[in-house]
Amino acid sequence: MSATITPVDASAADTAPTPAPRLRRFVRPGAALLSGLLLYLSFPPRPLWWLALPAFALLGWSLRGRRLRAGFGLGYLAGLGFLLPLLIWTGEEVGPGPWLALAAIEALFVALAGLGIAAVSRLPWWPFFAAAVWILAEAARARVPFGGFPWGKIAFGQADGIFLPLAAVGGTPVLGFAVALCGFGLYETYRQIQTRRAAGAATGTVHDEDTDADAFTEDGGAGSDRALATRAGTGLEAAAGGRSRTLPRGPLVAAALAVLVPVTGALAALPLVDDSAEDGTATVAAVQGNVPRLGLDFNSQRRAVLDNHVARTRELAADVKAGRAPQPDFVLWPENSSDIDPYANADAADVIDGAVRAIGVPTVIGAVIAPETGKLRNTLIEWDPDRGPVATYDKRHVQPFGEYIPMRSFVRIFNSNVDRVSRDFGAGTKVGVFDLAGTKVGLATCYEAAFDWAVRDTVTHGAQLISVPSNNATFGRSEMTYQQLAMSRVRAVEHSRSVVVPVTSGVSAVIRPDGEIVAETKMFTPDVLVEKVPLRSSLTPATRMGTLPEALLVALAAAGLGWSAFRSVRARRTAAE
């Protein structure tokens, strides 16, 4: 019996239709988009924090070994998949234009992160550099343009996650870095295992050695995929010659460490999460008066908003007198609880003063101050039951396109809603810490909770408790209020302080220093929360170090990008010789 081998016509194979490669070109863009969607799903109100890990693993697979231009495009798709659904509440009352514009602009920072991750993905230990590049992009997004927009920092989706204790170590940058590093590490671990399996199947024997494994692909394109096939092919040739394929151990160790370091670090940081009452306790009341109706026009019934908060405070006073509620040490009203200037309107001052006298303790009032000239002020007023208004705090980071309109004449071309803000708000300059019945309360008004410096400043100025008075009525029943509440939970752990969040329309909450919510309201219902909370004065490493951890991570990202550029230049020179 004989056997014949029919040769394959190479030219026929080359000209045969190949639909599969055409479809494969959409796999990585689809994966990048999906990674962004998974990031969105990891954010509140869903308790799916762990989805951030497969999101970064999938993003790492999409970007590793790509050209820089492809990395930018894939990163932009990931950014859109993440930020379009996350920020949909910004168009709740003004239409889709501002929402789409904001998401499109903010996604550019994710695109730049994608470019950087693609560049450093060709380096040894690339998950560490890639995670640092992500934090570099977040740091930039938190500062520019118009003072930045840090909404959607990865850390803010981790209030229920195992990595949360790291917020006390290095704030939101370290927490976000740990999540990204673990996700990239999971992908790299999988890739290294698959590489060894492929090489083992090709050669029959695989040895490990302690050398650098990640070959630098000079073309910067699909090099990582082709490299796997090349290594397997090399193994076959080696097997034919009686030799075995040798794989270095270093990359597998690096991949494992990328997973283990964040998890181990989070466990080691657990002792920093402490809700003991170092300075005793305080009984605090948070008033949620509610608004007449949802939407931007709630301000047209400003007196109704004020009267709602007055009524809830008087009801609390009656409950205290009847023994149905404990006597609070102080009371916190939300931002904009009095959009009528009590300094200019005696009737507003009278009803506020009457409510404060009824409850008999210092009360913080959120008011809009309208001087005769100049800009408006978003102000918190400490109102004493005997002396009236005794201290003020002006919001330091006012919201662009919400409280003031940059480039008003240009923006008006695209959306006439800018004229709803007929008079811009101005920013304050002083850190807000009120002494309320012997308790030092730090103040970060609404949007300020998203900014690391705005909350940290209050603690370094002596705050034993943090208040985040907010007004979310403009955004209806969207996810916005839950996203913001998660920020306050992260801040509680970051600075080891109780955080009280009074909101005009909800969700108001009382949070302990370990990030646990001990009381919260429903949305668009009048309510009052009265809780005893621990007071603390010690400083966490995150509070002490401030921006240093972020700066170190930015330096790590810069080192990786510089190293990648150096290797690229060197490779081109070598190729030219």
UniProtKB/TrEMBL annotation:
Pathway listed: Protein modification; lipoprotein biosynthesis (N-acyl transfer)
Highest taxon, organism lineage: Bacteria
EC primary class: transferase
Domain CN hydrolase: 282-535
Keywords assigned: Acyltransferase, Cell membrane, Membrane, Transferase, Transmembrane, Transmembrane helix
Single Gene Ontology MF annotation: acyltransferase activity
InterPro entries: Apolipo_AcylTrfase, C-N_Hydrolase, C-N_Hydrolase_sf, LNT_N
Membrane disposition: Multi-pass membrane protein
Enzyme Commission code: 2.3.1.269
Source organism of the structure: Streptomyces flavochromogenes
Localization of this protein: Cell membrane
Family that this chain belongs to: Belongs to the CN hydrolase family. Apolipoprotein N-acyltransferase subfamily.
Protein name: Apolipoprotein N-acyltransferase
UniProt keyword Disulfide bond, yes or no: no
Function: Catalyzes the phospholipid dependent N-acylation of the N-terminal cysteine of apolipoprotein, the last step in lipoprotein maturation.
Transmembrane residue ranges: 49-65, 72-91, 97-118, 125-142, 162-187, 252-273
